[in-house]
Amino acid sequence: MKSLKIIKPNNDTLVAQLASLYLTFKGVLPKEIVEFDLSTLNFICPLLVLPLAAYIDETRSKTIGTEKHQSYLSTIKFPDGIDTVNSFQQQIQLDKNFVPISVLRKDSGTDREKLETQFIMMINKILGSIQGAQSSIYHPITELVTNIFDHSNQDKGYLFGQYYPTKKFLDICIVDCGRGLSKVYKEEKGLNYSDEESIEEVMRGNSTKPGKERGYGVRTSKRVVCEALGGEFILISGNTALISNKKRERMVSLPNFYWQGVVASYRIPQPSGPIDIYPYLE
Amino acid sequence: MENEAKTTIQVAIVLAKIVGSRDLADTLKEVILKAKTRLVNLDFSEVDFISRSAAHELLLIKEDLNRKILNKKEVNFINTKHDVTEMIRVVAANKAVPKNRPTFKAEKININSLTKESQTCPC
Question: Which of A203, B29, B40, B98 makes the best surface tag, with the fewest CB within 10 Å?
Answer without folding.
Answer: B98
